[in-house]
């Protein structure tokens, strides 16, 4: 097919996708730009989490208590394995730690977005942008889960809620590896101190929580469970942590990027209480409606995962999600757009 003829055939679908290709980046940039002001007002904000976690690792290796490290509103509260990635930075200047984590996670995020065939503006997805800005390990966790091969199991060791995505993908070997590494590190990592500090850590997590979980309200939790289940077991597990994990942070949404639709991404981008659940319910309802009657083509293009998964041997082709046609207009996408 000639390029011009192909472009002519794609134009109707492109026009129908236009609302999402405008609304999504505008919302992303506005919210992330507002968050960026915190760093501009106080430069110590940039890479702050990387610095705190490095200080916690230093406290562990020098006989201190990692779970008492950090300013009052950002005290370290992760599991012991989370200390390991920050050990190499103990002897480095603070500013070097900031630069390495911000720059490294930014480059890693760009690489992943390209592999997932997501537009560049997804770098401004507020939870992802915030993770990069703070030098948080969440970007590394996403890389491990999607591209880490057998090492995917390490993601669940560092961030236990990553096990939901591994369960969704049936990564039994990766989960087994995570368990083996956990057992192997029991004598090395400060698990005894962690257990002794559980009351303190729990208090810290509750105090520092500003997520949007539905878990504390039986009615909302039930609605979240039903909405996630209606999206299918696999996708529901990928999206479950921000809604059904105890005391989740907004940054937990980073791990859901491979399964986010444009519609849910917009809801999850805005820091409004209840928006996380509202986005999932909205998509679940619209998908049920779309199965029974036609919906506007532009709206259909905002449903379903926006990412296109990499075709590596470790992904089961039978379980690769149907990508939303906002970014890639396959023949099926064009057919949907013409409805």
Give an overview of the whole structure.
This protein is mostly helical and 339 residues long. It folds into 2 domains: 18-208, no CATH class; 218-338, no CATH class. Helix content is 60%, strand content 0%. It is built from 16 helices and no strands. It has helices at 3-41, 48-61, 94-115, 126-134, 138-147, 152-158, 162-168, 172-185, 191-196, 198-208, 218-230, 233-244, 262-269, 275-292, 297-300, 331-338. Helix 1 (3-41) crosses helix 16. The longest helix is centred in the first third of the chain and has 39 residues, at 3-41. It is globular. The two termini are 23 Å apart.
Summarize the structure.
The chain is mostly helical. The chain contains 16 helices and no strands. Helix content is 60%, strand content 0%.
User: What's the Cα radius of gyration?
Assistant: 21 Å
Number of strands: 0
Question: Which geometry do the CA atoms define?
Answer: globular
User: What is the typical, i.e. mean, pLDDT?
Assistant: 86
Could you name the key traits of this structure?
single chain, 339 residues, globular, 2 domains, mainly alpha
Topology of this protein?
Elements: H1 3-41, H2 48-61, H3 94-115, H4 126-134, H5 138-147, H6 152-158, H7 162-168, H8 172-185, H9 191-196, H10 198-208, H11 218-230, H12 233-244, H13 262-269, H14 275-292, H15 297-300, H16 331-338
Helix pairs in contact: 1-4, 1-13, 1-16, 2-3, 3-4, 5-6, 6-8, 7-12, 11-12, 11-14, 13-14
